[in-house]
């Protein structure tokens, strides 16, 4: 478990335990030396053994996962990690999502690994900002993002919880039989006594175990002893998804429920000025027109009628002064800013300027990537009911506790008067993270106007595409040079972005041994609201850096794979990943006639991924035939699920590489639906091969690292096939 | 107006405006929420249902226009005891991720295989145009291929009856 110790975990758990002890029972996994909540609470025969585990008398072990399920399979993987340490019979393991209550916050885990993590995912910083840096507000996080579920909650929460529970069950059995604990073993949800044929099920022991003090240092299994972790166990959420019975937030149905459609100011920052409600009020079924600060909503007795009502309105919105009128202007402004003063250094090594003047060959390149919408398949939706000083919300978010806070503010009640039900997400990708819960805010404000009736708000796809928190548009300028021996010598990069720390610094770092580096960011704001998009800054900077290294290779007259490989002598894990991907692709042998191959290597969220792409240009269109992926994320918990995340990442990145572009005109988003914001379809999908290189390195994430390498791999392959260097996304010939 | 629909073998009535898309009548009036709203303009296929055996994007078809026709939704695809062959293959190949598009995807594939039991890759690409943001296409293709080879040319029969051992 790298530098991070169990003692540290438990210590931090104790701090949080101090908070939990206030009003939440049943949490016993706290160190005795703090004297906190040393005993489990038993009610209705249900024993809460740890924060993340409940064992009932029937022996069923229910893992309570403080992470949402959005297709990444985290709940299954987390349950596997706990069940492994618990020595549970997998058939007796269930998983449920933690309720939106402070006891299930996972922020303390994030906090725990801050001292050892080079960079905390930036959206977490943002949550902390919202919380005014108050320690107690760390508890407000129940976040699913940053590819952290398995490597943080799983590694430092689930495994420890499972091991602690097993130790207590063993102790309970030993006491019951009046034998030494060393004679007892746990297997398949039972404790067995070696000296006799006695055995007791976990269900029979749970109540006794709950009265014991939890161990401070529970013994953990070695990887060689694993029987559940490392197996591709069928995901628990899939059966309901093939029968259409999974209940997403949009599927919520309540007695007397009304429906709402909304239309927000097209220009970010504008407010609702006026609206004549009459055209909507004349629509059959319309109950009310609701004025929000920057939007108008219509409540009706069906969604279709609400939608017709809102479409009938012609609201006017205020003129926003600070508006960048269009995308071309935006990039011109960024370009000017990059040449001006104020660049903040992110990485500085050697003397780049001096080395540049002496170099054998110089290369300059400008890259750009556009704003991008997330376009989750389930449009934003939330149902709210406000009555008698309380507020109940049904929605799908990547942080239920943050959303509960948003709902409380919108409802004008305290957080403990809000009950929030989080549903499986029809896609997240960062759109449903803290700071982006505007749809929850809207739903509650709308429902207040219809109280006590519940109201379900559904965004149209047009609202979704035009009111996202977009991946930032970035312009990057590179200067580089190779020496007379044909190796990369200088790397100078300027780009617009956020603060020169956090995940951005990670994203702009190159793994290659380049002696002189000067990488600096220029902060540049626009009125377009931005957010966290799957793989965050890595999706942009992976494209820039992996294309530019390709350009340097070309300048050096070198083969691009060999050129990279030579520069990775001191980065053996990166080198091994690169070599594996190249080997999978048959690198070295020429591709089929008419095709080109490209390669890219990006580390993100602790996982190193190399991808090759084999492309062909057909009638001016880029066709990607085959993608080979090698990845090193340390240990793999669920091989098939891990591969699925990589495959999904490739496709997510491919849509951005080939099609996705949000542009601004007259201050507003031009695109509105899938006809002008198209996605990769099955016809576009390459065959994808995925292989993992397992190691004892610290666990990396998997939800995001599959995304960044595909765009540069494809762009480099287009260059190999056509000689054309494409430097803007989406790639267009 | 009152609309009468034959859905999953049952006559159902609902009160809705004449222009209400089938999608919203299924979801809100009949409680069949397995059929999903994704775009409202027939671009993504999340709302795909069968009308007389053909795949139809229910977000743009007025419910009033399909009265008296045979409608099957994801809830009616399986027989009471067994999953439809496509659903079983979806589990076997662990296709869904977030799963939101998969009702429509499964309905589109079931319709394809009913008339083309052994589709070529070109046919699959041409017929299956549903959007999946999680990027499950590779597994969709894998699952379709496994169904095509398992059928040995008799898949239409399998798919029609929905009989397949899990």
What can you see in these coordinates?
The complex is a heterodimer of chains A (733) and B (166). Chain A is 32% helix and 23% strand. Chain A is of the alpha+beta class and 733 residues long. In chain A, strand 23 (595-604) and strand 24 form a beta hairpin. The longest helix of chain A has 29 residues, at 149-177. Chain A is flat, with a radius of gyration of 27 Å. Chain A starts with 5 loop residues before the first helix and ends in an 11-residue tail after the last helix. Chain B has 166 residues and is of the alpha+beta class. Chain B folds into 2 domains: 2-76, Beta-grasp domain (Ubiquitin-like (UB roll), Roll); 85-161, DNA polymerase, domain 1, CATH 1.10.150. Helices cover 38% and strands 14% of the residues of chain B. Chain B has a 5-stranded mixed beta sheet with strand order 2-1-5-3-4, with helices on both faces. In chain B, helix 3 (85-92) packs across helix 6 and helix 4 packs across helix 7.
Number of helices of chain B: 7
Q: Beta-strand percentage of chain B? A: 5-15%
Order of strands across the biggest sheet of chain B?
Answer: 2-1-5-3-4
What's the CATH class of the largest domain in chain A, please?
Alpha Beta
Number of helices of chain A: 20
Architecture of the largest domain in chain B in CATH? Orthogonal Bundle
| Total discrete domains of chain B | 2
- Elements of chain B, N to C (H/E): EEHEEEHHHHHH
What is the radius of gyration of chain A? 27 Å
Whole-number tally of structural domains of chain A: 3
Which stretches of chain A of 5+ consecutive residues score pLDDT under 50? Answer: 1-50, 107-140
Architecture (CATH level 2) name of the largest domain in chain A: 2-Layer Sandwich
3D shape of chain A: flat
Task: Find the count of extended strands of chain A (DSSP E, 2+ residues).
Answer: 28
Q: Biggest sheet of chain A: strands, sense, closure? A: 7 strands, mixed
CATH superfamily of the largest domain in chain B: [2Fe-2S]-binding domain
Termini distance of chain B?
43 Å
Mean pLDDT score of chain A, rounded? Answer: 86
Quaternary structure type: heterodimer
